[in-house]
Design brief:
The chain has about 100 residues and is of the alpha+beta class. It folds into 2 domains: about 60 residues, no CATH class; about 35 residues, no CATH class. The protein is about 40% helix and about 15% strand. A hairpin with a 2-residue loop joins strand 3 and strand 4. The chain binds zinc ion. Zinc ion binds next to helix 1. The site of zinc ion has 8 residues, from helix 1.
């Protein structure tokens, strides 16, 4: 009799369905029916809501990375800021500063 695979297509921890499920021994405990992300979690961090919160934080950081660009670095115009906000940069810096930093 063949074992059905359908029971393992949903991660027991986070409910993911789009990952191939893994099984194996972690911390001396046999683990099955987990996506590859949850499979790698240690016992201490096996909290699905903590994992989701962490993931969300990382995504937020990526999405907002432009917003934390500082206009000045050591009192000099920040090239990254000029690249990210060319319009704001024109208002913020003098023509000479823009020329020197582009
Ligand atoms: Zn999972």
């Amino acid at each position: 009799m063949k074992e059905s695979l359908t029971k393992n297509t949903v991660c027991k921890i986070c409910g993911a369905t789009d990952e191939p499920m893994k099984s194996g021994i972690i911390d001396g405990e046999y683990i099955s029916g987990r996506c590859r992300i949850c499979f790698g979690l240690s016992k201490q961090t096996r909290n699905p809501s903590a994992l989701l919160a962490q993931y969300k934080r990382e995504r937020d950081r990526e999405d907002n990375s432009k917003d934390i660009v500082q206009p000045f670095m050591k009192n000099k115009p920040n090239r990254e800021f000029i690249k990210a906000y060319p319009d704001k940069a024109k208002e913020l810096y003098t023509d000479k500063e823009l020329k020197d930093n582009c």
